[in-house]
Amino acid sequence: MPRSIVIALFVYGLCSVPAYAQQRDDARDGAARTALLTLAAASASLQAYDVYSTLSAMRLGAVEANPAMHALARHPAALVAVKAGVATSSIVVSTRLWKQHHRKAAIALLAITNGTMTAVALHNASVLRSLRASRR
Known about the structure:
Blueprint: H1 2-59, H2 70-73, H3 76-99, H4 103-134
């Protein structure tokens, strides 16, 4: 009888290890997915802030510094459309990478684009602050 209990406990132990490993993988995937969703929301927010700050600064006399966006910046609807397209495309590409199990690449893509847009947002905020201070 004790031998059957030991065997049963051994078999039970073997069965529970993959379940535990699966739970850890699910928890890791959940945390990574939360990071991806947070980065996607930040991407959209940063692009929206770029539109706001660019248009606000231009109303106060600033000029768009990016030559590729210079012509678009004079047309608010076009600027919004392009920025929405940029945010959407980076989110769609990172989502596809995620679904193809390239999770680190998906997170890296959004982290890099968000880092770049954060630098742009900080620059725009600085220009906007300077313009507003000079108007007082």
